[in-house]
Amino acid sequence: MTHRTTDPIEVTHAMVRSLWDQVLETPGDLVGIHDRTETLLDQANSETPLVTRGLVTLHSLTRAPAQRREEIGEHRKVWLAEVDRYEADPQGWMRRFFQAMVRDFTNRHGHDRGAQFALKLRRNGLLDPADVPREAVGDGS
Questions:
Q1: Whole-angstrom distance, CA of residue 118 vs CA of residue 112
Q2: Nearest Cα to 103, choosing from 58, 125, 133?
Q3: Is 131 helix (H, G, I), strand (E, B) or coil?
Q4: Per-residue model confidence as pLDDT tens digits over 90-99
Q5: How far apart are CA 53 and CA 61, in angstroms?
Q6: Which residue, 47, 69, 110, 111, shows the most beta carbons closer than 10 Å to its own?
Q7: Distance CA 43, CA 47 (A)
Q8: What proportions of the chain, in percent to the nearest 5, are helix, strand and coil?
Q9: How is 46-105 classified by DSSP, letter by letter?
Q10: Which superkingdom heads the taxonomic lineage of this protein's source (predicted)?
Q11: 3 state DSSP class of 45
Q12: DSSP state of 16
């Protein structure tokens, strides 16, 4: 991936959805869509981790020109369902995202490091104290 020096742009769900739509409408242009997706990834200042997830998935799927439309369509459907969940409750979606991040981190690195990570997210306002059980972070509240 070539890194560009342009200023970050705000990439939205709608922009990523448009790229997904283009894949299904013009399947012969996967290389062009891959390049546009890569450009957005280089410049992205995404509104949510979900935007980045959509871009990364699309980037991966368009890397191989022989990708089946049905497979791309299924990935698009999964991503759009997640966008719907986000749009129905953005704060709840973000809270669940960070809770899952803490769970995954804790499973990989153990309770103590997981508790430190959860506390860091709480201090940065990404999790509320009620989102992480007290026993997970001890007296670090």
A1: 10
A2: 133
A3: helix
A4: 999 998 999 9
A5: 12
A6: 47
A7: 13
A8: 75, 0, 25
A9: -SSHHHHHHHHHHHHHHHSTT--HHHHHHHHHHHHHHHHHHHH-HHHHHHHHHHHHHHHH
A10: Bacteria
A11: coil
A12: H
Question: 75 near 108, Cβ under 8 Å?
Answer: no
Query: 124: helix, coil or strand?
Result: coil
Two tokens, residue 65: 């020109």
Domain boundaries, the chain: 13-88, 91-137
Q: Do residues 62 and 97 touch, judged by C-beta distance below 8 A? A: no
pLDDT in tens, 108-131: 999 899 889 998 998 888 888 877
Under DSSP, is residue 20 helix (H, G, I), strand (E, B) or coil?
helix
pTM across the whole model: 0.74
Task: Return the structure tokens found at 59.
Answer: 């980037």
Six token digits for residue 6 = 């342009």
| Residue 117 contacts residue 99 (beta carbons within 8 Å) | no
- Average pLDDT score over residue span 47-60: 88
Q: Record the tokens describing residue 96, joined without a space.
A: 């669940």
The separation between the first and the last C-alpha atoms of the chain, rounded to the nearest angstrom, is: 41
